[in-house]
Amino acid sequence: MTFSEHGVNMSPLINDDNSIYSRILNDIANSIFISGDRLVTTALAKKYNTSITPVREALKQLQGEGFVTVAPNSGARVAKFEYTTMRDVLEILQLLEPYLMEWFVNEHTAEDYQQLTELVEQMETADDLTFRQLDTLFHWNMYKVHYNQNAVNLWRKNRLTLMAIHSNVSLNSSRIEQSIQEHKEIMQALKERSMKKTLVAMNKHLGSSAQYWSRYIGKVIS
Question: How far apart (Å, rounded) are the C-alpha atoms in residues 2 and 122?
Answer without folding.
Answer: 20
